[in-house]
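Batch manifest, entry 17 of 40.
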Amino acid sequence: MEKEKFNAITKKQFTKLSRWYDSAPLRLLYFRKIYGKIIEIVSGKNNYLKPDYSFLDVACGTGEVIYRLAGKYPSVNFFGVDFTEAMVEVAAQKNYGFGNVKIIKADAAKLPFNDKTFDFILSSDALHHFSEPELAIKEMNRVVKDKGFLLIVDPSADGKIKRLMINFFGKLLETADRYYSQKDIETLLKKSGFEVESEFTYYFNNFVFAKKHN
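Output type: C-alpha cells
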C-alpha cells in the first residue's frame, strides 16, 4: 500500500480509537500490563529518569505513560509526539497541569527536535504502524543523546505459528504495515546505530532495549 494512503487510513483508525483508547475493558485486558512493565523498566532499579533528563514518547497515543510518570518525576522533561490530531488532543488534555510535559503533533519519520536532545526514548505499540520504520528509527537515533536509551515495545511475531496468528487476527483489528520478530527489531536498531542490550517477550509483546553508540 502507498505510504500516503496507509498513513491516511492509520490516522482515521486512531481518530476513532482516541474516543475509547483509555476505556476500562481495553485497559484491563491489555494496556495495564504493558504500561506497568514499561514503567517498571524506566523507573526501576536502574532509574532512567534522573533530574533534568529529557524523555520522549514517540507515537504517545493518549499520553498515558507520560501521565503516569510526570507527577512522580517533576524534574524530568517529558515530551510526547503523535501524528493523529485526536490523540494529541486527548494526551494534551490528560497531561494538562504538568509543567514538565509537552505534547506535539508530529510524524515519527520527521521528529521536530534538535540532534541529541533526549536521554531516553520510548515507542510502544507503534512500530508496526509506521509506514517508514527505518526512517523513524533513524530519527530516534538522531534525537537521542550519545549513550542514550531506546525502548521499543511492539506485538511479537516470533515463530511461524505466532506470526501467522498475529498477521491474520491483528490485521482484522487494525491497520499494520507489518509485525516484527525480536530479530527484525534488532536488525532495524543495529542498522541505525543502536546496540541492543536486552530483549524479551512479555504479554504478547517484544520488549527491545537498546543504547546509542558513541
